[in-house]
UniProtKB/TrEMBL annotation:
Essential cofactor(s): [4Fe-4S] cluster
GO terms, biological process: thiamine biosynthetic process
Lineage: Bacteria, Bacillati, Bacillota, Clostridia, Peptostreptococcales
Protein name, per record: Phosphomethylpyrimidine synthase
Enzyme Commission number(s): 4.1.99.17
UniProt entry tagged with the keyword Endoplasmic reticulum: no
Primary enzyme class: lyase
Amino acid sequence: MNQIETARAGKVTEEMEIVALQEQVEVEFVRKGVAEGRIVIPKNRLRNRSKICGIGAGLDIKVNALIGTSSDRDQMDMEMKKLRIAEEAGCHSFMDLSTGGDIDGMRKQTLSSANVAVGSVPVYQAGVEAIDKKGSIVGMTSDDLFETIEKQAADGMDFMAVHCALNFDIINTLQKTGRVTDVVSRGGSFLTGWMLQNQKENPLYEEFDRLLKIMKAYDVVLSIGDAIRPGSTADSLDQSQIKGLMVAGDLVKRALAAGVQVMIEGPGHVPLNHVKTTMELQKRLCHNVPYYILGFLATDIAPGYDNITGAIGGAFAGMHGADFLCYLTPAEHLGLPNEDDVRTGVISTRIAAQAANIARKRGHVINNELQMAKARVEMNLDKQLQRAIHPEILKQAMNKQKDSDHHCSACGDDDCAMQVAAKYFGIA
């Protein structure tokens, strides 16, 4: 049996025990969450790895990083470096979004090297191979698409973003109502073009049961991709987005009934005043399954700083129920990220997750904050390093002050007013 079937049978898996220990919750809480679909554990039955995580209600928010080759930059060695950097920075998963070079080789390298969950977007490979073999994405067949999905599942992918919540009814709504940014999802645009050219329904929607059979066989978490996510704050919560969310909700119900772990991908560009509504709609319409968000980008006008806009939106989204944050790097909207961009993206997103976890009153998270505050009052450098989200930058700053007995970040003065007050109150 897979994770969800085992949970529904009242049994506990090793993965559930690991998640419970990490999250400092009872294992029965995890088992029940998996059984009801509120928690997923991305773990392909064919893949072994050292780090397991749970995603969903009542757990810490998780952070995802992106890697992958493209036709513009086919450097598997660079992607390996980025993978290592992202893991060291504390990400909980990767998605391999390769669209160029040796896609199969890149996927196998990622799966064999990563110690965390790995996901993919199989329509990328199916579309690229259709271009190579048939001259165009529109030449792709339904069988081509499902063969790619099964190949990636058999290789060990733990979760997959599949753009199945897209159909002609949604496209007709999009054409009728209009948008500023139309379709910005790469997978969504691949399938929209395919559908309009061939005048056929999206095979991932039309043959959804075929997809579920593959997901269940390998215990892959189905991440229902947001094919028509808003690409600007102006398009947030428009009719097309809401209709897509309703279709996704119907598919979630079918996935859960079939015994498949499932989560929902979401927007995208979302102004802060729309975050709470967006989260409530998703949870309500999609049966409270975990929500994996791509941002949220709180503003459109900060190219070069989208790790910050994403962290702002991500913190608000996490506070209102988002369970899984995909990182944004400073390279978003500019080009492909380098190694430094990846590190910055992971850390920025972890900060957003931490802020949201505090708002969600996660006990061990709040205790970590308290211990950091006490370590600062005590000027205990070792404890500060243990608690810091990115200790290396703190260590570098401390090394500059190593010739002094006093390490005050505010003034650097041995005769420190803060310490005088701390001694007076007996907390120095």
